[in-house]
Amino acid sequence: MPAGDLVIPSHVTYNGKKYAVIRVEGFSGCTELTSVTIPEGVTSIENGSFDYCISITSITVPKSVISIGGYAFNECMSLTSITIPEGVKSIEQRTFYGCSSLVSITLPESITSIGQEAFLVCTSLASIHIPSNVTSIGSSAFYFCKSLVSIAIPEGVTSIEQYVFYDCNSLSSIMLPATLTSIGESAFERCSSLSSIIFPASLTSIGVVAFRGCSKITAITIPKSVTSIKVGAFWGCSSLVSITIPEGITSIEQSVFDDCSSLTSVKIPVSVTSIVVNAFFGCSSLTSIILPDNLSSIGAYAFYKCSALQEIYIRNSTPPICNISGDDQYNVFVKVDKSTCKLYVPIGSKAAYAAANEWKDFDNIEEIDFASVPTSKETPFIIYTDGDGITIIGAEPGATITVFTVSGTELLTLPATGDKQRIALSSGEIYFVKVGNQVKKIAF
To answer: Facing residues of 252 across strands?
Structure first.
């Protein structure tokens, strides 16, 4: 079994005849190899060629290589860097699985796909440029790449598959392409450093627990194109202050906002007909909620431990059915103080609510004319310095953004789009930023 530094020859002689080496394979499990030099002329590194070569620190791949098979460098846990030559079209399944010392890798623009688990548990990989021609990234491709700080997904990618960035707990920045239509199950679960994410207008689906445990995300605007938010999608986003839910969503799924303990207010769009089990479980900062006309049912524990809830606006004159299980221990509003929380209902419907299961437990039921009530509560916006300017997230679409100097001079005015907005400003100053009736101060 070869050991130490291996230089693969460009030609070999067999039975007196000279042959060019064009393919490399068969070094799997050579645990004492420390480096490999592959000669020019080789076009293919076959499946599992250097699988479990745990001592290899460097591999020289020639420009002639156009194909690298799956598992080729699987568990090469001492490999620190590698350059993939132009001409290689794909990073196959588990090519760099478990390369825990891999700090840097250069991928050519010829790459069009990254296979499933390609970089799984590459725990030292801090950055990677995904070539612009990549159109598919397989499931768990960057699973537990815990040193990865930022990444940009190129235009052309339509789906982020399940577990792609699972437990990338240093990932603080990601750019999503305008072509993206779906985010899969657990795609960003436990990305605990991710503070903001901008969804493209093309997005239609957010998968099961897709952002569970993203504890630094502060604001989210879900685009109008989204028709499906799956179970637990934002579970445990404990810094989430504001969220915009679009019309078109018909159901708030189980545990979607479970333990979003910083969420203060939310408006449920008129398209929603049901709120299911645990939807807002543990949203302990939620003070106000607006429920729509067509809401017909609310599942058990939907607002469990929403202990700060002060007002509920329910626009349906027919009380939605609460806790369809009928078991009192699974009531919708457990731990909500029904003696102080006010329930606002349409004119003429107080008697119906006073007789309905769970709604009757509220001491303060008041009839109001909803024509005079705003359709949405003003939600807080997020502002932070960003390079040579400031970035605003979560401003209500259509609101006016105005920037003032500390002396009160108006610098600029622009409409809020509801998306992430960046404003270039001079540094070394203090500014006041007004969105609607809210004003925030920022030093830059």
So the answer is: 275
Q: Is 371 helix (H, G, I), strand (E, B) or coil?
A: helix
State the fold for domain 248-379. 3.80.10
- Please report, for the chain, the start and end positions of each structural domain, with discontinuous segments joined by +: 248-379, 382-443
Pairwise CA distance, residues 384 & 406, whole Å? 17
- Whole-number Cα distances in Å, 122 to 36, 84, 117, 131, 257: 20, 16, 10, 19, 31
Classify domain 382-443 by CATH number. 2.60.40
pLDDT number for residue 377: 47
Task: Using the Cα atoms of residue 331, residue 336, residue 339 and residue 344 in order, give the sign of their dihedral.
Answer: negative
Contact status, residue 416 vs residue 397, Cβ threshold 8 Å: yes
pTM above 0.85, yes or no: no
Q: Is the separation of the CB atoms in 152 and 128 below 8 Å?
A: no
| Lookup: tokens for 261 | 């303990």
Over the range 323-343, which residues count as b (16 or more CB within 10 Å of their CB) and which as e? bbeeeeebbbbbebebeebbb
Residue 376: per-residue pLDDT: 45
Are 218 and 382 in contact by the 8 Å Cβ rule? The answer is yes
